[in-house]
Amino acid sequence: MKAEMKYTILLLASFAFFAAEASSQCRAFTKRNCLPILEDYTQNDNYNAAVLIPGDAAELDMAFYGGVNYRVVVCSHPVLGAVEFGLYDSQGNSIWRNTDGSDHVDLSIENTQQLSIRISVPQSDAALIHEGCVSIMLGSKD
Amino acid sequence: MSIQSLFRKSLTFTIAVAALSWGCGDSSTTNGAGDDHSAATEGATLAQRTKTLKKIFRAAPSPMETARIIQKEGLPFNADYLCNLSLADQDGMSTDHAIHLGLYGADVSYASIFQKNAEALQYLEAVKTLSKELGVGSILSEDIISRAEKNRANRDTIVTIVSRAFFDLNQQLKSAGHEDLSGLVVAAGWVEGLYLATRELDGATDGLKQRIAEQKLILEDVLDLIDSYSDSPAIESMISQLQPVLVAFDGVDSGEDAAPTVDKQEGVIVISGGNELKADDETISAISEAIALVRNNLAKAS
Predict the structure, then answer these.
(1) What letter would DSSP give residue B25?
(2) Which of A73, B26, B68, B213 to pair with A27, CA 20 to 30 A apart?
(3) DSSP state at residue B33
(4) Beta strands A94-97 and A84-88, pairing class
(5) What phi, psi does A117 have (nearest 5°)?
(6) Tens of pLDDT, residue by residue, chain B (302 residues)
(7) Listed residue (A80, A74, A77, A69) closest to A117, CA to CA
(8) What are the tens digits of pLDDT across the range A35-46?
(9) Are B182 and B174 within 8 A, CB to CB?
(10) Residues of A in contact with B54 (CB under 8 A)
(11) Which of B166, B169, B276 shows the shortest C-beta gap to A111?
């Protein structure tokens, strides 16, 4: 029984280590690779990043102010392949998709409204599945 | 297979994957040519799961964005409406510090956008004090404060420093598993931002009234965000305090359903149309009174 407990603790500690390591790497990845894409746009306060695997999806809904210019960045680790993302209005109608493989889109919005950013990580048939960081960064300027 | 053997195999597998992952991970000690390697590999490891998921992120416009649009509508700056700086020196629970940090975040954003840089620097110091209390003091190092002081006449630099600090704060709190505290910072920041926007309504322009009405959408974002952490008593209290504000926003006219039109001009996606939110004077007044009650409760001495 004692041995089982020892192994359980070691196993849980290993997974905790993994979670902390993945989170730390995602923070470093975002700061180094994603933040610079915002250029002169002022970054939004919210940190939206997660470790995803092939086949995963993600979504962010947020109100965007009218009369403001925005840059939406979806930055992902290359190991995940060509991550797709698109913008949708509050009724779910598609506004734009990154069919050109772009990692960002610039927006000018007339009236304040809710928009949705939807992300999908392509499936992979690789023998070893990698997980990678995906970050959504929002920036604004006059 | 015995349970012990199963544990051993699981542990062996975990350690093996850890070793492989470590090799794929970032090394903070590398420099020079080594940086190229770490930049290419950080943020990726061997997967710990095989079942796919859909991750839902929650976010809201920052107080800096709100301050920017409110300033454009001709709202005057009045330092008397900002929170008392003594909140930073109060003892309290981490949830109290998070709420006060959110209030100060909006105050420093307003002061920055209105180019009241002396006030902005005072509130930045208060933010530093509170962030230390929450164990995330590194978001505002002495170097950063010193850079802000040297650039006190440069609005853009101050705005960038404040925005970066609050992004780092949000990142560190979430990464440390304190999502509830990050939610309280966001909610309190929104409350203070709307409080400041509704202090001087005599002679308010239609533009300002429309901006206040639009906060109905932002409140929905804020409530969605904090509701995802609703197992925290402090979050439950915040949700409860915001209910009268939600009721006050019932008077906002969401206009007729109008699908936005989309155009592309010089590489920019231009989204025109969509619903125009409006509110009459009575509704604006009700919102102003409701938000003042919440804000004064959050900002009171503990």
Answers:
(1) S
(2) B68
(3) T
(4) antiparallel
(5) -105, 120
(6) 555 555 555 555 444 444 444 333 333 332 333 343 444 456 678 888 889 999 999 999 999 999 999 999 999 999 999 999 999 999 999 999 999 999 999 999 999 999 999 999 999 999 999 999 999 999 999 999 999 999 999 999 999 999 999 999 999 999 999 999 999 999 999 999 999 999 999 989 999 999 999 999 999 999 999 999 878 999 999 999 999 999 999 999 988 777 889 999 999 999 998 889 999 999 999 999 999 999 999 998 65
(7) A74
(8) 999 999 999 999
(9) yes
(10) 56-59
(11) B276
What ipTM was estimated for this complex? 0.85
CB contact under 8 A, A4 and B7: yes
Helices and strands: H and E segment counts in chain A: 1, 9
Triad B149, B155, B158: Cα angle to 5°: 50
**Domain spanning A2-141: CATH 1.10.3470.10:** no
Rg (CA), chain A: 18
Token reading at B116: 């009241």
Structural tokens at position B254: 């969401």
Do residue B64 and residue A57 have CB atoms under 8 angstroms apart? no
Residue of chain B nearest A139, judged by CA positions: B65
Say which amino acid occupies A126: A
Give the tokens for residue A11.
């196993």
Read off the tokens for B152.
């006190």
DSSP sequence for B223-262:
HHHHHTTTTSHHHHHHHHHHHHHHHHGGG-B--S----EE
What is the Cα–Cα distance from A92 to A89, expressed in whole angstroms? 5
Residue ranges per structural domain of chain A: 2-141
Task: Check CB contact under 8 Å for A28 and B53.
Answer: no
Instruction: Return the SS3 of B199.
Output: coil
Calculated CA dihedral for residues B203, B209, B212, B216, nearest 10 degrees: 150
Asked whether A139 and A105 are in contact (CB, 8 A), the reply is no
Q: What are phi and psi of B47, to 5 degrees?
A: -65, 140
CB A105 within 8 A of CB A4: no
